[in-house]
Structure formats: C-alpha cells, structure tokens
Amino acid sequence: TEIQGIRDGLALLSRENIETEARELLTFLGNRIPLLYGPSELEGLLRIYKVNFNETSRRPAFVGLLPEINHNEVEMFDGNEHTSPVTSNFAVLLFLAEGLDLRLSARVKLLADTLTTRGVPVRTIHLEDWSWKSALSAIALSMRTAGLWAKEAALAGASTELIQEFKEKMKPFDGAGS
After folding, report:
1. Which residues are CB-contacts of 104 (< 8 A; sequence separation ≥ 6)?
2. CB crowding 93-117: b at 16 or more within 10 Å, else e
3. CA dihedral 62, 67, 69, 75 (to 10 degrees)
4. Cα–Cα distance between 124 and 74 in angstroms, integer?
5. Per-residue pLDDT tens for 101-113?
6. How far apart are CA 136 and CA 53, in angstroms?
7. 2, 9, 38, 148: least buried by Cβ within 10 Å?
8. 39 near 108, Cβ under 8 Å?
9. C-alpha atoms less than 13 angstroms from C-alpha of 121 in its C-beta half-sphere
10. Helix, strand, or coil here: 39?
C-alpha cells in the first residue's frame, strides 16, 4: 500500500546524511537566491523546496519547469552588462530523477553545462528513483537546509508580524465574492 511505502521510505532515511547534505547545500547557496529548475514531473517537489525556503528561512526562491525555461528564462544568463549584475545573485538547483524521458534528461544535463560555462553556480538534486525514500529524502533535505538557513539568520521562532498585518487588512474582504 501507499502508506506502507511511506513508512518504509521514512525508515530508510539517514538523519546523518541529510544533515551533511543540508550543510553542503547551505554552503553552496550562501546568500544567493535559489532558482529551482526541473521537469514538470517533479513540480510538486520543486514547490516544496520553494515553500520551505520562503517560509522557514524567509528567502526568495523561484520555480521554473523544463522544457519551458529553455525557451526564454535561460536567456537571462547571457552574460551581458545589463543582466549579469542581477543574475550573479542566483544559484540554480537542477532536479533530475532516474527514469525520465531521455530527451528531458539530456535537456537537464545540457542546461547544467550551459549555465556552468557562464559562471552560474549549479547543483543537481538527483533522485535515484521514483520511490518514497527518494522523495522523502529530497523533502527532508529541503526542510533541513531551510532550517539551517533560518538558524544562521537567527529567524528560528521569529514572529511573523508582516503576515499578521496582511491578514488583518484582508479581513474586510474575507467571504467577499463567495
């Protein structure tokens, strides 16, 4: 059953490995803004990373799906004098999983090479398969990295006054149009 698959996946997770990987990922990201790129099959996972980075560590992060980003978004890394000052603040996390369409896997690898040759920091998050263990391991990595980022910025347990202020201002509109 699916529930047993989740239980089995959780049992296989190594807290020590996740801690080590999270610290390495945090070092890689530094103070740069993560661009989370991957195939649409992994969109849910990319969005989990984004939410964890946004909510836990209050860092911006953006999701882009392949092949769409190869058409326009990748052009921002052309290295010209107008784009370079902005793009130098980005780091790309490329997500790849075994069993993807060969053409899509090739696209991910080619994108990594293209960005790396232009000086863009790129790291691949590789899921070894489509199992619960791989998915949960990747999610745990995002959670731990975000937690370390928050701790580093002394944000752990910090208040969310801006969110509360926004909610108060939205109260007159709650239920409007329903």
Report:
1. 39, 66, 67
2. bbbbbeebeeebbebbeebbeebee
3. 150
4. 16
5. 778 888 888 999 9
6. 16
7. 2
8. yes
9. 16
10. strand
